[in-house]
Fold this protein.
Amino acid sequence: MNEMRGYLAGILIVWVLIGACTNTGNRNRSNKYGTKSIDSAQNLNRQKFLADSLNRQSSNYLVKAYSNSLFTIKLSKAAIDREVHPATHRAATFLIEKQSDFNKKTAHLAENLNISVPENIGNKQEKKLDRLKNNDGFEEHYFRTLLDLHEKTLRILKEAENSSKTAIKDWGKENRTHYLQYIDTITTGQKIIDSL
């Protein structure tokens, strides 16, 4: 029986190593900050934490929130590049600053926990960003999209607060109050644009 367990454990280790080696091409290349996209970050974390569901769940929280923040930054930069209402410009500037700070702290936590985060948004988000940037009603869509995205991230942070991993629980608590402030900024900007 012990021989069989040893044999199965050996197969599992070889399988994990082969998977890690075959998925380290350009698409999944890691560096200090993470991997190329959300998909490759999630795949790499699944491989790292194959038998560790707590760390796998922690990585999902960080990767999704980080990716949502990257999208917010890119969309807000697109808003600044356009001729927009001063309220939109103020909101975009505020969000770029705050989300950049959020991502620095999240990347630092991820590094401490050996979790890979994406360097860039994924293909779906890139297509959505292109659609939004080329939309005639950009400002209305900007605020609606960001409100939806921040509410999703707020749900991630609330869920993270229930983690049995202290660092993730603290990250969720600390950032939840910030995200409530970001949502307030977004809804204020949206009300101004909707009233025009």
